[in-house]
User: Which sequence fits this backbone?
């Protein structure tokens, strides 16, 4: 389904309008005025409207209701049979964060000297409370698109490891420079229990002691800065310290601490630290929160990861090693126990604990698949939807801007052919800041309109002939295959070589920048026809495939030069 | 010997990681130029899953939410389309049997080895609200008491392991040599199956120490093995704080291989160890002086404004702990082997005015027993471990008995998850080798350990008023065929060989999702 209206000029009018965004001085890209009519609207906070209209103007929801009339300048889209719900918010993203260079190896064990803390790397990765993620984040287009295709419209970005990871940024999943349109920054100080290899603090012991010392230092730093700023003469000037500056609002309870804590003991440790320093604690991960209900019941809402532990088949010493991973007890690696962890969210809900759901390190598609597992394990579906929308927005401190379909909120919407998190729901279009992005392009070509739409993509037929290296995000991780294509006008032919053997391509078509084809593979004793659909952007394609019973997966491909 | 590839501390990076084994001992068995050789490892898949499930059940065992019999099955979700909810898994019902708090319990007709006042034949112990209310041969059984028939059984105080590395998720923060700011209490874990095995060996209290990678390793934790309760419940409330020191080969790390990004670490010799100690305590003295001056100024300030204008010194967690040592508020437990390094430590302690509470391992302690006794330092040693590295060359199995003879408070410790479940056999060796008396040998794993840890008013012997931490044996604890029948902590039965579920039973229970109903207190 394509929402672009007949009047392309309507979009151009929007250029002059400035959206009310608090974080950026420039005028954002045009979004225009839309009226989405006859839609089934899941507002999340105000119930369901069976047949209603949503008016979007300049990226903001202007009106919602059963009896709302489309304004005269709006592009009116009839969404009969479609459901519109708020975009999901991913609170555990680390997309687009550059990895600073690791420190070099020290001199090989030379004699006596050095003393403590001898030498220091240029950058204390993972020990940087003053790291401002909003200044660094530069997500890849494919990551943005993969999130959006799963119905995610906003992501809270912070490094996923470290004791002090920095100040996170909430960014929209739009193609044009997401970082530029930060929704909120900083959202919180992101903390965790990971040390730094080879130097203090390397272990859990050191990390907690380090955090404690740093927080005491921040308390004192705040006191000294206050005195200095009070302007009296003769007050000594405190040393400038960006890291302590960043921690002062944290120890004063003004900025929440997003603390990565997955298993029971990690959760209790985070709660203890928060109590000691009176932090505004948000536990992130909380995979075993059901085992620490007493501790989390009184805490602020949790960010519950659905990154369930993977089974490992190891023995001997490696088995012991497995016990030390993030979910530290090997128990979670037992199939029966993994099932238990899937029921975590449902148990929390029944215990009256408020939470958002988050992917952890999962890719967007796997995220959604695991949300479904949590639902199957007892989490009511509507609670899951809330957890992905309004709860997440509240935790990020933007409950008045995101997370539901209400007038005045940012127009981050998902248009789908079924209810949110429905078993067979397919997402058709996603609005981010009122900009429409197709997820499943319509069969009938509207390439010209598409080109004139938000992304500014060209209208000519893509040229795909050549050799492509394709990476499929499968359930067991990434699978790589090689694809060789030939093209005659809008027809393509060729073959694919993968771990399932060589398969000929059939029904290959190029439609503007969209390319579709099928191939048949022998998988697990059965011949399965896989349907591919991809968006071509020069030498890169991103898309999804449907493989019968195995379901839908995303993929990317790069053309060999 | 190649100093880079020897069989020393190659694995410090691994030492600090949690596991269930004996970390320090494992380190000594690292082979030249290879990865670690595990001392013991689970062999079969079934064993793995047994241990795994045992741990899980433990993790789910908080009584705060163990709502047996209240399965809380909500109605299927309403409103949402496609809502075909499976019956939710009730995680709160999966729980280990947590013994109810002890009310009134009497152990009757047992041989009671008190560790303080000899052995009582056919005696009775009355436990009221977790404390020993009466003990003796002619003690009447109060009405309404749950009776534990001790006929033919031996009762000892709960065993105290004076040197353990169990129940901690990290042991060595080996990146600096002075890490007095790190705390075992921060990294406690309650989910190791070895804790249950130790409980099944009559062990009730552990002194969990840091490893020996650092000159000052960090703040230790004394815990009771209240197995099955959340981790906070392990802590021995009111136990004096302590700190682990270490001397010798492990600290100087002669053979350590550096990881990428890691710097070579001071000290490299025993001289350096002493220098580091003196430097650290000199800094602590200066730090204490800064705070004393600040406190004095604050006291002298006449107005609130004057007080507010004072800027306190920056708090330093590393030095805070050392100031507590200087002020005698924190017990020093010092890993040591050789007589010369022990004497060095005693000189440093004397110069800075503190007492070393215990020397750990102290394998050459028999050579300087009088000096140890004079300094008031306890000794916690192995029963019969020797010659496993250069600095252990002069160790002898008579060490414990010889030191005790000269008036040193001696304990025999495990330093091992494995030995910790049969410390009573280790204690028997002091009788076998050194001719210690039965009670003296028993004290080496009970009352003496309590004294060394400053908890002897609470535990360590079977005396009226003490915590009812007891082990009930099927035979004389020093006999080879003795097994622990029952272990009580605070009067609660935390292990009972007759009724405690096996791991197989626990697995079945969990698969069927049946809530476990806690058995009646006895």
Assistant:
């Amino acid at each position: 389904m394509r929402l672009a209206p007949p009047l392309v000029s309507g979009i151009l009018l929007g250029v002059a309008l400035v959206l009310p965004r608090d974080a950026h001085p420039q005028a954002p890209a045009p979004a225009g005025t839309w009226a989405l009519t006859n839609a089934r609207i899941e507002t999340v906070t105000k119930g369901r409207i069976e047949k209603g209209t949503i008016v979007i103007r300049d990226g903001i929801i202007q009106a919602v209701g059963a009896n709302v009339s489309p304004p005269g300048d709006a592009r009116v889209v009839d969404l009969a049979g479609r459901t519109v719900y708020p975009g999901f918010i991913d609170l555990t993203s680390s997309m687009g964060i550059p990895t600073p260079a690791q420190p070099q190896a020290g001199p090989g064990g030379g004699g006596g000297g050095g003393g403590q803390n001898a030498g220091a790397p240029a950058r204390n990765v993972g020990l940087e409370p003053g790291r401002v993620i909003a200044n660094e984040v530069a997500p890849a287009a494919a990551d943005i698109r993969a999130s959006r295709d799963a119905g995610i419209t906003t992501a809270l970005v912070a490094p996923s490891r470290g004791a002090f990871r920095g100040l996170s940024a909430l960014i929209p999943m739009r193609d044009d420079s997401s970082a530029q349109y930060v929704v909120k920054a900083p959202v919180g100080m992101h903390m965790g229990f990971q040390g730094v290899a080879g130097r203090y603090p390397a272990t859990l012991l050191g990390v907690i002691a380090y955090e404690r010392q740093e927080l005491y230092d921040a308390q004192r730093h705040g006191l000294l800065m206050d005195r200095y700023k009070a302007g009296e003469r003769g007050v000594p000037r405190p040393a400038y310290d960006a890291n302590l500056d960043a921690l002062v609002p944290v120890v004063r309870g003004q900025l929440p601490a997003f603390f990565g804590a997955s298993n029971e003991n990690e959760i209790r440790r985070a709660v203890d630290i928060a109590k000691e320093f009176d932090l505004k604690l948000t536990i992130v991960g909380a995979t075993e929160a059901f085992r620490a209900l007493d501790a989390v019941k009184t805490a602020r809402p949790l960010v519950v990861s659905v990154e369930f532990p993977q089974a490992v088949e190891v023995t001997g010493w490696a088995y012991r090693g497995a016990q030390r991973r993030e979910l530290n007890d090997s128990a979670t690696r037992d199939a029966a126990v993994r099932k238990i962890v899937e029921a975590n969210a449902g148990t929390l809900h029944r215990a009256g604990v408020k939470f958002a759901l988050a992917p952890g390190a999962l890719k967007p598609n796997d995220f959604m698949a695991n949300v479904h597992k949590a639902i199957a394990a007892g989490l009511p579906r509507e609670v899951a939807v809330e957890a992905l929308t309004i709860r997440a927005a509240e935790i990020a401190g933007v409950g008045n801007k995101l997370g539901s379909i209400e007038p005045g909120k940012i127009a981050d919407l998902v248009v789908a052919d079924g209810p949110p998190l429905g078993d067979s729901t397919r997402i058709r279009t996603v609005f981010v800041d009122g900009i429409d992005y197709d997820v499943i392009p319509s069969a009938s070509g509207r390439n010209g309109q598409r080109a004139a739409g938000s992304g500014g993509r060209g209208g000519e037929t893509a040229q795909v002939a050549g050799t492509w290296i394709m990476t499929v995000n499968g359930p067991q991780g990434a699978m790589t295959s090689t694809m060789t294509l030939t093209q005659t006008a809008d027809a393509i032919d060729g073959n694919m070589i993968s771990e399932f053997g060589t398969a000929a391509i059939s029904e290959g078509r190029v439609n503007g920048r969209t390319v579709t084809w099928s191939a048949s593979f022998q998988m697990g004793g059965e011949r399965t026809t896989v349907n591919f659909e991809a968006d071509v952007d020069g030498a890169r394609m991103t898309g999804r495939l449907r493989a019968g019973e195995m379901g839908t997966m995303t993929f990317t491909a790069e053309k060999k030069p | 010997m190649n100093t880079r590839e020897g069989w020393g501390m190659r694995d410090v990076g691994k030492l600090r990681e949690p596991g269930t084994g004996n970390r320090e001992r494992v380190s000594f068995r690292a082979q030249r130029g290879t990865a670690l050789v595990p001392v013991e490892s689970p062999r079969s898949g079934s064993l793995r899953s047994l241990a795994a499930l045992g741990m899980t059940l433990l993790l789910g065992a908080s009584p705060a939410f163990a709502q047996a019999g209240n399965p809380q099955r909500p109605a299927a979700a309403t409103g949402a389309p496609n809502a075909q909810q499976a019956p939710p898994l009730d995680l709160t019902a999966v729980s280990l049997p947590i013994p109810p708090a002890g009310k009134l319990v009497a152990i009757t007709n047992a041989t009671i080895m008190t560790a303080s006042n000899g052995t009582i034949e056919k005696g009775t112990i009355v436990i009221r609200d977790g404390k020993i209310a009466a003990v003796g041969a002619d003690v009447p059984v109060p009405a309404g008491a749950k009776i534990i028939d001790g006929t033919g059984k031996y009762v000892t105080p709960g065993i105290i392991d004076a040197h353990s590395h169990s129940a901690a998720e990290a042991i060595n923060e080996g990146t600096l040599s002075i890490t007095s700011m790190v705390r075992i209490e921060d990294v406690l874990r309650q989910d190791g199956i070895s804790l249950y095995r130790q409980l099944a060996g009559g062990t009730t209290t552990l002194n969990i120490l840091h490893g020996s990678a650092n000159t000052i390793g960090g703040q230790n934790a004394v815990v009771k093995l209240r197995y099955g309760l959340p981790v906070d419940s392990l802590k021995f409330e009111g136990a004096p704080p302590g700190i682990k020191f270490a001397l010798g080969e492990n600290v100087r790390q002669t053979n350590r291989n550096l990881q990428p990004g890691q710097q070579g670490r001071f000290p490299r010799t025993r001289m350096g160890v002493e220098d580091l100690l003196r430097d650290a305590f000199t800094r602590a003295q200066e730090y204490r002086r800064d705070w004393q001056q600040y406190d004095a100024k604050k006291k002298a300030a006449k107005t609130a404004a004057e007080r507010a204008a004072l800027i306190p010194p920056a708090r330093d967690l590393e030095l805070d702990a050392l100031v507590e040592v200087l002020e005698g508020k924190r017990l020093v437990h010092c890993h040591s082997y050789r007589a010369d390094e022990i004497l060095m430590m005693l000189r440093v302690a004397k110069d800075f005015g503190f007492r070393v509470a215990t020397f750990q391992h102290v394998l050459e302690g028999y050579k300087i027993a009088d000096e140890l006794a004079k300094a008031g330092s306890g000794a916690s040693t192995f029963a019969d471990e020797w010659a496993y590295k250069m600095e252990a060359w002069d160790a002898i199995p008579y060490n414990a008995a010889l030191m005790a003879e000269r008036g040193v408070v001696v304990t025999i410790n495990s330093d091992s998850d494995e030995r910790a479940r049969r410390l009573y056999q280790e204690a028997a060796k002091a009788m076998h080798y050194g001719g210690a008396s039965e009670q003296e040998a028993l004290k080496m794993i009970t009352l003496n350990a309590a004294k060394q840890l400053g908890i002897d008013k609470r535990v360590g012997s079977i005396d009226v008023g003490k915590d009812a931490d007891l082990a009930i044996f099927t035979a004389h604890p020093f006999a080879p065929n003795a097994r622990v029948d029952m272990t009580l902590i605070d009067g609660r039965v935390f292990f009972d060989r007759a009724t405690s579920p096996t791991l197989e039973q626990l697995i079945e229970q969990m698969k069927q999702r049946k809530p476990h109903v806690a058995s009646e207190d006895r």
